[in-house]
Automatic annotation (TrEMBL):
The lineage of its organism: Eukaryota, Metazoa, Cnidaria, Anthozoa, Hexacorallia. One of its GO terms (biological process) is signal transduction. InterPro entries: DEATH-like_dom_sf, Death_dom. It comes from Stylophora pistillata. This is D-inositol 3-phosphate glycosyltransferase. It comes from the Eukaryota.
Amino acid sequence: MEQCKLNITLATGVIGWNTLVNKQLLIELAKNPTIKVTGLVPSSTPEQKEQARELIVELLDGQELDGFSPKERLSFPPDHLEIDVLIMHSYGLHEGKHAQVIRTIKKCKWFHIIHTISEELAKYMDQKYEQKKEHELQLKLSQKADSIIAVGPKVADTFRSELRHCGKSNDVIDLTPGIVNELVGVRLIHQPGEKFRILISATWFAKYYRVKGLDIAARAMKFLQEVSCYLICIVNPDEDTEELSEQLLKEGIELDQFAVRPFQSSDLENWKKLLCEVDLIIMPSRTEGFGTTNLRAISADLPVLVSQNCGLGMALKKLHSGAKHVIKSNDPKVWAASIKKVIENSPEDQLSEAKQLRQEYEEKYSLEKQCNCLVERMLTLFPSRQEDFKQSVEHSEVFEQERGQYPEVQQYETETVVHEERALENVNYRSQELRPAAEMKSNQTERKAYDEEMVDAVQKQTKELSFGARRTETERVDNKEIVETVQGGTHQVGYAGAKDVKEERNGFDQVDSAGAALDGVNDKNSNRNQAAITNMRQSIKAEDIPYSILSKICLKLNIRKDLSFNDFRLLGEKMKFTKDVITNLGQKENPTYELLQLWYAKPEATVEKLITFLKEDDMERWDVATILENCLCTRVYTISKLNVTLASDVDGWNKTVNGQLVIELGRNDRLCVTGFVPNNTQQQREHASSLNIQLVDSKAHDGFSSADLLSFPPDNLNIDILFIHCHGENLGRQAQVIKDLKKCKWVQVVHSFHEECHIAGYEDEHKLQTKMCEKADAVIAIGPKTAESCRRALLFSRRQENVINLTPGICEDLIGAHQLHKDWTTFHVLISGSLRHFNIKGCDIAAKAIKLLNTPSYHLTVAVKSSNETADIRKALLKEGIDSRQLTVCVAESREDWRKLVCKVDLAIKPSRNEGFGMSGLLAISADLPVLISDCCGLGIVLKTVLFGNSHVVDSDESQVWADRIKQVRNRDPELRHKEAKQLRDGYTKKFSWKNQCEEVVAKLSKLVQKSGVYDSSLTVTFVVSPVTEQPAEKQDQEETVKNLAKRIQDTSLSDKSSISEVKDPKKKFDMVDAGRTQVNERLLMSVKDIPLPVYSRVCVSLNVLRNVRFDDFRMLGDKVGLSRDEIEFVGQQGNPADEILKTWSSRPREATVAKLIELLKDKDFGRMDVAQIVEDWVSSKER
């Protein structure tokens, strides 16, 4: 009957799990037959696991995600955990906010537990801002929650008032903690000793010293010196007892009047001992949500004095005898007087009054009744499941009746201890100590035997009651195995296989029943798939059907069916064309194609409508409809775009690399690009809009930082591929959550990979980056240095092939920003600085180099990202010996700031000791500013491969070397410097193009998406990129294709006896064969643009001839290389369309090879063997 129960999850932090309120809730809720209770904590301890098992409650941990703190893990419950109602404890700023995320993921109801009123705490604390912020967060969370559980009347009254404006005051439930049954009767009547011991809770004293009224208690002790009182303060085991002692002594209390003890409050035995030791407990709090420490004392019949300003005080005032235990003042004298009254009472009177208070409290605040009301309220939130809940109750009642047949079991399971009798029996507690040891041992043995008998009885009854359920479960498992067997057979051999399975099972018709079972199991997914396919058809225009499919449709519909007329003629009537129009089209070479061309202009011309026409009763062309459906369900085309999302924080979005990626990916027709930036600015949204890119914000979850919000994209954001930038330990880790949520591919963009982390001191960051790269589907490494480091780190996991090197290109908006400078008096040198990366960026090298030049005519300008670090970095630079008059520290936050900087300075340097790339250096190169770059950063490595680039690289981290190179640059003629800077920029532009590299990235990622089969993020068929437009994913694939083609061509060529008839020397013969094979390989690897003109022209002439039946001309070639229908139609208007298509294709040199062209021409859909033979003849010939 578990499926009939309401699934309730209690979630809290590790410390919150041990609280009294949480434990009482667990115990009472677990008793209710209509619910199933589960616990959720970030990371549980073995003790907590054991405690949960004793309560028959499963305790689960949050998902373990790399880079997330334990507190953050509470937002991510296990996938298998079913939640109907989430009860979330809320403490401070970090616990409680997770419910927003869990409710979204699990689609559950949310009950929010509030323990304190932070606004009141702030009055008596130093950190007032934090408490006020916490109170604001609690109000926001309460407004979002379905219900609010307030612990005690004080918290309930406050939040009812504050939530009245939004109509949620009725959603506040007052849950007053109940008596702790385990502590009832533990105290015995005894005569007080020389000292009257008073207990006070001082936990978290550093934060709540005045809130808890510890100063009031200490000062009250000054007025109680004649009665010899002793104050015992308990603190957490990890708190500093000496610190609290010093604070109490300052209040005037004597050292011999108090003690500060570390105390483990989660241990019940500790409480029993302590409550028996002391004579009174006080709570002089100036304000407190409730005060469960004193509730334990009440449960143990210990006299109490409680402030009226706490929740427990308000609860006690409602009891008949409760008022005498409540103090209405914060004056130490008043508290001292009240304590004296308790001392003056006899021990019997003290116990009697304490017992009366406990009985009244127990009757007024029954936790069992409160929890039953709470569950009833929860059940009303699920009106459609009321019958299930009734069945659960009935099942429980039947079980109780059957269990009643065993009275000894019922007696064993039910507590029948009467607390009053137990107390009277133990009044003379000393008699228990005098009891003979043998008698004690005998009683223990009898009790153990009795317990074992009762356990056996319970187990026997349980086995009898569960036999039927277990038999049913066994049958269900057997049927499931049959279903899975038939399903597996059906998948392998189709209908025939299913039929064989049926015969093998001795004629038992399990195939049919299995099919029915499978339909039931997969009904939800099937309906969702069908709906998705229908939506997709409706959104695809008929004119976007690829030529390879269109040719098959036309061939079938062009065949005249003169009996049924269910060919192009009946289709034309359904498209509402007149008979005259259809008759004229019938005279064309390809009437179906001409008919479709006319129909495309109508708004209804979609794939879905065409399939509907073909399936109608009078048409009944299921063969043609099946071609369309099978094609759409099994292949991937350029019909719709790939949804790419670039995710970063506000600062990361403004970085140069992200900006260029956004621009280039946004220009790609095959992509729909979206930016995901939590708390993005208006300026960023306007900039994204100018690039035709939508910039979206995260879900509105209160209490989370901007980096944390990056884990929660909007529900309506469709993601096929996620690009997420990785900066430090704070960015990049969120992709784990987004991938699981959106079922998308994950591309980690890595800017720097601290392989030499022992130098940089980034060990944790390096480990996290490695883990993220191992989990990602692909890694884009910025620059060759970062790419190599990533590949090395991924060798162990064998994922090094997932790394894509993306070397940033020239920033076009900065070209020409730096103008020719005359030889001015002062030579200004620019460097990008950072206080955190001071040594990594070589800021000290730059400062020392300027100092070594020993002339005031050199000036160092340091650009930083934030004004917060200008003063500190200036101090650090001055310590290196540079003259303050030769130093300027400025802020460069935007591209416009950099544009101004590069206009002012004469040289940019990057003396980095270790840097992933060095974008500031590339900005300078883009602006035609002379540069000197260290070979220890990625940009320096890149420049060594660029024409004229090596002269701008410095192979040393010695300050003197840098001083000499700066001087050499200055000594050059200004015009020559400017000319060389332009040459460097031109060479870099030719070598590294943003456009080409981004196209290669898109091609690789398209294949990555297709590897998962029919791609979708929610079991929806999605059309992305044509498979033949892919570039080879690996060089190995391309080489294999070339090898096979070469072997086939060479075998054909060498089979001709005349080709080797003149070769008599066997050794020479083999040399010629090897040479021929080498030539074949070289030609197959050539780009199509390098095919000799005579051969190239024959290919173009053959493909330019229109073949309107099969479309196996230039149009299908364009289709195969990834051009859209509009692009093909446009090219068709040119004089040589095949040439235009091949030239466009040649912009992707790794794909557009001779081998690939032959492969496309021989594709079964294309089938142009005549054109392929032209190319193959040239490949195998000796002609140049």
